[in-house]
Amino acid sequence: MKSTFPPVEEQLARLKGSVAPVEIINEEELTARLERSRAEGRPLRVKQGFDASAPDLHIGHAVSLWKLRAFQELGHTVIFLIGDFTGMVGDPSGRSKTRPRLTREEVEANAQTYRDQVSRVLDPDKIEIRYNSEWHGERDIYEFLDLVSRRTVARILERADFRKRLQADDDISILEFLYPLIQAYDSVALEADVELGGTDQKFNLVMTRQIQRAYGLEPQVLLLMPLLRGTDGNKKMSKSLGNVIDITDPPEEMYGRVMSISDDLIEEYYRLTSGLSSAEVEAKLTGGDPYKLKHELARMIVARYHDEKAAGEAGEEFLARFRQHEWPTVEELIAKGNVAKIKSEHVWLPAIIHEIGATRSKGEAKRLIAEGAVSIDKKRISIEDLYTSKSEDVDPHLSGVNQARREIREGKLKFPRTVQNQTPFVLKVGKRRFYLIYHDEEQLKRHS
RNA sequence: GGGGAGAUUCCCGAGUGGCCAAAGGGAACAGACUGUAAAUCUGUCGGCGUAGCCUUCGGAGGUUCGAAUCCUCCUCUCCCCA
């Protein structure tokens, strides 16, 4: 049975609207494909690849997800390709050498989380999820060499990044060289008509076109989408750089993260993440006060991935928390799961901070305390608070070896002192990390 | 296959026998100031209970009272030649 599609003009307008692709390679081909699809009643196969080993999608990824959604709404087929095979062999950026091999179960678990996340933007019933191990996993070396033989080194060296590293005498592994080819084959296997990707993927995506031609297929159309910079305003949004806003972040978190973007990013975020048309963005931005603009943006973004109500509440909470410097209540911390149990009430504070995972070492915890970054129940802890000259306050977990020393110094020097507060108490570490520390379950139950 | 250069703490990079847990810069973190922004200033930035002690300078041995620094072998990277 044949599907019907809107007129090509209308489709094109839709695909180029809202967040426009930075580049379409190329537009005539896209028009031609759309026309043919309409004439034949055959939906286009629109593909985007995702990394199987990093299954958290952020609002930068969402830029192209929304574009995929436009395709979906126009009646085309969206293929969500999970690069489980390529994820297993390595990383093309040259940063990390080899990634840990993913097991079948991990891949499936990641695929499931992808599906959940993607459904916040796309219609989950209309996604074809595929894995590139389907074809690469089966491949023998002859087929592989056949693929490799279709390109030359010079072609690969066209990539600016390789040229640069070559000039800088940096190393490039052969695997990295092969990576674009392996990836390119995915589009051959999927018979993709269109592929979406970030502009940073341009080289790899152009390679897919060349490889498709080499296999006698019509090259796919590329929609290169703009990259969103991370909340720090310097680098691209990336989990490893810690400057992300995940599409699954809870409302308050999301709101707060939007508020923390640098001012230079306001326009970029409005354009790429708000869902407004460029005319609307234009209108908003002229003469707007950055602080207000950010609030408005935060509200829109939260509403997009949660709903209006959540966005409103997140906004109010934000104001309460950060304008009036309120601490979250015990109930809120419990609700969010920012709760940590300690073994005993008699534990040295840096040990607690370390134990709950707020710092990488006790030394770091101590440093933070010295810097005035740690508070308990709204009272700032100073380094002196950590020590006592009364041995009954000493952390009893500090064992035998130290016991002797402790005795020697009794009366003269100071010892680590256990937390003086009754549990449960609220511990603040750094600017925005709060933990409810408790010792026995009963204490918690009283609150929930 | 031959010749040369190199591997330092998250990154870049100094250090060529004790003064080195290792300069400097970047990143990061914290405090002050603020709008959870930027800029700025200040501080921190291997691990331990403040003390000294432990572990770290590609890997394994060795020389030495003492090694990131010297020697041997190994691994890896880059350059030039074939």
TL;DR?
The chain is α/β, with parallel strands linked by helices and 448 residues long. The protein has 21 helices and 13 strands.
Describe this structure in words.
The chain starts with 7 loop residues before the first helix and ends with a helix. The protein has a 6-stranded mixed β-sheet, sandwiched between helices. A 5-stranded mixed β-sheet has the order 7-13-12-8-9. It has a two-stranded antiparallel sheet with strand order 10-11. The protein is globular. It has helices at residues 8-16, 27-40, 59-73, 84-89, 104-118, 133-136, 141-148, 153-157, 160-167, 174-190, 202-214, 251-259, 266-273, 278-285, 290-305, 308-323, 330-336, 349-355, 362-370, 400-409, 441-445, and strands at 23-25, 45-51, 77-83, 127-131, 194-198, 221-225, 339-341, 374-376, 379-380, 387-388, 415-416, 425-429, 433-438. It has 21 helices and 13 strands. 47% of the residues lie in helices and 12% in strands. Helix 12 (251-259) packs across helix 16 (308-323) and helix 15 (290-305) packs across helix 16 (308-323). The chain is of the alpha/beta class and 448 residues long. The structure holds one RNA strand of 82 nucleotides.
